[in-house]
Design goal:
Elements: H1 2-8, H2 20-62, H3 65-74, E1 86-89, H4 95-104, E2 109-111, E3 127-131, E4 143-144, E5 151-156, H5 173-182, E6 184-185, E7 191-192, H6 195-210, H7 232-243, H8 251-260, H9 267-276, E8 295-302, H10 303-307, H11 311-320, E9 325-331, H12 334-343, E10 361-369, H13 377-382, H14 389-403, E11 415-417, H15 421-431, H16 433-450, E12 456-459, E13 467-474, E14 477-484, H17 489-501, E15 514-515, E16 519-523, H18 534-543, H19 545-557, E17 560-561, E18 570-572, E19 578-580, E20 587-588, H20 600-603, H21 624-627, H22 629-632
Parallel strand pairs: 3-5
Antiparallel strand pairs: 1-4, 1-5, 2-3, 6-7, 8-10, 8-11, 9-10, 12-13, 13-14, 14-16, 15-16, 17-20, 18-19
Helix pairs in contact: 6-7, 6-8, 15-16
Length: 639
Amino acid sequence: MAAMADVNNVERRARPPRNGRIARALNWLRARRTRIYFRAANAVPYGIWRVRLAARSRLKRYVPIPLRDVLYRYVLPRTATVAGNRRYIKDGLERSAFAAEFQRRHVRYAVLRWFEDFPDWPAGEDMDILIDPADVAKVSDLFQLKPNGRAVDLFSTDGSKNLAYGNVSYFPADFARRILDGAASSAGGCRVPSSRDHFFSLAYHAVYHKCEQSGLPSRDGHFPQAKGEHDYGEVLRALAARIGVTSDFSIEGLHALMRDNGVAPNLDTLRKLATRKPNLRAFLPAEACDRRGGELVAIVVREWAMAHGFLPAFKAEIEKELRFEILKEIPLDAAARARARAAIRGGDWGAGPNPQSGGGPAVLLLCFDYHPAPPSAQTAALHPFVKNENVIRAKAHLRDFAHDRTPFREHANPVHTADDELEALDYAQTVAPEAAGALRAELDALRDAYATRFPVRALFSSNRRRAKVELIDFGGKPAVKKTFRPSARDYMRHEVGFIRSLNGECAWLPEILEVGDNYFVMPLYENTLAAMPKRKWKRTLRARAKEIVGIMRFFHERGYALMDFHPRNLILEPAGRLILVDFEYVHRYREKPARFLDAFDVAGVPVFADGTLADGAREQAMTYDIAWRPLLGPIGRYV
């Protein structure tokens, strides 16, 4: 009994007060005290921030332009330097002087198109300028928000500084940087792309931004013919002849040409573009859900979350609360971060509706959700490519988890998630091409192992953290099948071994009809408790209180602690027999406590000073005070 002597010398978890409800309330408050504190502290600044953001979105509609200029510059978050793409060359500043100021201030930029006659400019045409985000502040004083007929649409290379195209960068980030690297001064005095970059940037604009409105023909009939504001086909043919590029100059042909030259948007960006131009869906791969079930979920942990030390807590929340299984954790080196930053989120890693940006990608977590949920109507409207509501829940849960533990002014978006499995595989291919092939094989093995070969009548509700419980047809009769995740097979062997070890000795255990590699089947027992009104249910269990406590004592005497014994794991047959189910957490003592009242499922598992549990227990127990005392009263009545 040396081990038990050691246990007596360690810190034990405090016994709950005699009133079980008070104990649960106090435990609830202790577990959430940090969250409650930060929610209260953040309530006022968060409310002010939301009002300010809402005010920004309504300025254009309700506020006169001079007042809007003042508010943008001095009052509202994100000043006039990041007021959006559209702004106007300052009154009194000629286009040639405007370009000369860019040159004098050493700004990396390029005028993208229609610059052939600069400083003259086509009437009614705005100037589209691509700029290095680091240089945006250098030129903020050269613009105004008040319209004057000399409009400029400003786009940053990575979509930051609120200078994106919708919610994606204007061009793929690598291509945008290449445009600026190759830009040179034109005869008119402004910086313009090289001939090759000019062709591909115009083709990109015509195909993905204008789409059918470009006036380009559709080779395969996916895009209706429309008259464009420019003859993009003619201009592109002239540019292509200059650089020696051939194409049929249809929308489909130019898309294929850009894909072959590494200019086309990746899956993530193309999907976002398709929400603005639905006909672009013709370029997306076919979407499908594997009929065997489950979905791969990619969670990108951003630099802000890593800097605040949230990664370990996120992993615990993903597995325990979200009930995903983490298949791979891929830290991103410098090269992988650069690839991911350019290819994921449309290249836009800005702040969004937060006080600051969450930074770029740092770690990719590839998880498997064994039980996807259909998207809600709201999710389907806002995120048309999401197939699984749990993806949205996961993103919101991790964001709230981080925000509930940090002051409001430090808030940022800590994670990004792929919309579906197709996108998750694309993320894996982007950051770790060597692992992507093996990942598909692993997904096939997971699905095959978890699939049910028997005819399934229903899926029982449960937390499904390690297993699913189904009503099946077994030999022409209804039966219950419990299927464990491949990673939880040890729990299945533990549960089956426990039941078989006491077979014939204990009338409270279910019969096992069949055992497989990761499942077992038992009969379907009629449970009269399930149909009882709550008052009768309580009265019935109280009448069996002595037997219920006797069950715990029986297993204690044989060296076991049930650990997860509560009313929901109890079946009452019509003949009056009590049957216990769910033994994943049953603990076999190495050194059994001498007194029944010190049993782990009665008093709880002693905890060492370093936080580890005594006697090699894997989890803390559901104690009598928590599970049964509110219903049956003090255990002393029955012992």
